[in-house]
Structure formats: C-alpha cells, structure tokens
Amino acid sequence: MNELFEIIGKMPPWFWLVWFFMVGSFVGSFLNVVVYRLPRNCLSINKPKRSFCPSCKTQLKWKDNLPIIGWLLLRGKCRYCGTKYGIRYPAVELLTAVLFCFAAWRVLYADGNLSGEWAAWLTLLHILAIIGVLLPWALIDLDLTYIPDKLTLGPLLAFVPFAAHADALQFGLTRSAQSFDLTDVSAAVPANQQYTHLWFNFSPVWLNSMISAVLTGLAASLALWLIGKAANVIFARRVREMGGEAMGGADVKLMVLLGVMLGWPKLLAAFFVAIFVGAAIGTVQLLLKKGHGTPFGPYLTLGALVAALGSSWIAALYRWYMDFLQGAA
Ligand SMILES: [Zn+2]
Fold first, then answer.
1. Region of residue 199 (left: phi > 0; alpha: psi -120 to 50; beta: else)
2. Distances in Å between the alpha carbon of 89 and those of 57, 77, 136, 201?
3. In this structure, which of 31, 187, 261, 275 has its CB flanked by the most CB atoms within 10 Å?
4. Which of 5-14, 192-201, 239-248 has the highest mean pLDDT?
C-alpha cells in the first residue's frame, strides 16, 4: 500500500492536475443529468443509460456526449432537431472540472507535495464529494427553489462515516493556524488535542471527530430553524406577502449536511460567506428591482465550497472571531 502511494507521489503534479480536470468534466456531465432527472420523478438517474435530447428525445451519440467538447462540436445545438442547448451544460462541466483541478492542487501541492500520503488523498476525496453533492444542490435550488430529500439524506449517510477522517475537517485550519500560534501543534501535544475543530478531547480521534461533526450539523440546523421562526414573527407581513416561510425546511436539512461535511469552524466561515454574498447580491437585486427571494441554498453552497477548499484567510477569520468572542466576554 505504501509503495503504491510512493509511486503515486512520484508522478509529476501536472499529470494529476490534468487527470482531475478530466475526471471533473465527466463528473460535471453526470451532475447535469442528476440536476435534470432527479426532480423529475418519472426519470431515473441510470435509466435510460444514454443521454437523450430533452426536446426530441433522440439518444445522443457518445461523441456528442463528451463533456465541454461535445457542446463545442455541435455549437450548442441538437444534431437531430436543432434545439439550442443552454450554455449551462458546458458551464457546469467546466466549473466542476476547474473545481476538481483546484481542489487537487490545494490538497496535494499547495502546502508542499503531499501526493505520496494516503491521508491527503482521503482528504481530497472528501472535498471532491462535497463539490459533487453541493453543485447539484445549488442548481436544483436555483431552478425549483426546493430540494429533493434524496440529495440531503442520501449524502448524509455517506458523510457521517466520512467525518471520522478528522484531517479532512481540519484541512486548511491547522497549517495556517500554526503561523500565528493558535495552537502549538507539536509532538508534545496529544493527537486528539491537536484538533481545534472538535467539541471534545477524547480518544479515539476518529470517533471524536464523527460525533463532533454530527453535533455541529444538529446545532447549526437548530440555530437556523430558530432564526427562521424568529424571522417569521419579526417580518410577519413580508413573509405573508411572499407566501411561505423565511427559511425553508430544505435549508434546515442542508445545515445538518453542511455541519457533518465541514465541522464547525468551516461551517461558520461558510455561513459568513453566504450571508455576505447573499446580502450583496440581494441589495443589487433590490436596487435593480429584479428577481425576488433568491433561495439561500446557492449562497450556502458557495460559502461551503470556499470553506472546504480552506485557506489561511479562514483561519484569520476564525482568530478574529475568537478574539471578538473573548473581547465580548
Ligand atoms: Zn433534439
């Protein structure tokens, strides 16, 4: 096993970056299928196996199906009926490819070459899974402003055991935290205390990590649910006008999933980003008098992706927040 990773580690970085770009484009192609078929209950993800034109229902040839390239070859039109496909199909493929490639660089090479360590690959797999789950989430939420439970509860079953890999939740926090001595990560500190994101300090670390992640999810969803209830009371008139609730039930379920995916420091970071970007775009929409009530899901997704790909600024934000809390106490 170690020999295998030794060989993997000796591969040049560009090889893996190109490889992940290509894998990402195919995953993006699959995500397009998920986004189109999942909310349409009469269609299953794997039946029919081949993709078909949504307009004339003709099955597509394999080469028309190639991510990004297929769309370019046909100039975005169906070969059979000439219906124009939106730019969104290749855009999602390209976005997924770029995110996969960036994630690989971030995890394997940004903090020194870690491509020979299996734990780094497990962390990368964790982040790729987050991208693969959250992108369809955001797109379906944008399309329909509702989320099928399959997309929350299904991934939850996978991410709860995945949270046992504490490195993934810690990714992007320790290394940068070291530089301003947030925690002294040295050999003298027991392994389970090196983890600043956990709620407790008990062994084994993997169980500690899993329980902490689940608690984060539950606490976050409870908090969001309470905020939603409060908003319903405070903005009662506005909520009645819009017809519905300030926070959808889907957002509350998403919080459970995000908490388990990210752990609490990165969940907080994701939430900050979501509120900041959401408020900025919401203000522009209000000024232009365009659009109303964009769902919160896509903003949360954006925040979660930024946080999952963690970098030093998240640690800086975390330190600022902790200082702020200490200052307030
Ligand atoms: Zn067609």
1. alpha
2. 17, 12, 12, 46
3. 261
4. 5-14
231 by Cβ neighbours in 10 Å (0-12 / 13-18 / 19+) ranks as: middle
Provide the CB-side half-sphere exposure for 64 (13 A, CA). 16
Distance 294 CA to ligand 1 centre (A): 31
Distance CA 75, CA 26 (A): 19
Expressed in angstroms and rounded, the spacing between residue 146 Cα and the centre of ligand 1 is 28
How far is the centre of ligand 1, averaged over its atoms, from the C-alpha of 80 (Å)?
Answer: 5
Q: Quick one: tokens of 243?
A: 């017809």
166 contacts 207 by C-beta, under 8 angstroms: no
Say if residue 188 is exposed, middle or buried (CB neighbours under 10 Å; 0-12, 13-18, 19+). Answer: exposed
pLDDT digits (tens, 9 = 90+) for 152-199: 888 999 999 999 988 888 887 754 334 444 444 444 555 545 566 677
- CA 98–ligand 1 middle distance (angstroms): 28
Instruction: List the chain domain ranges.
Output: 1-113, 117-329
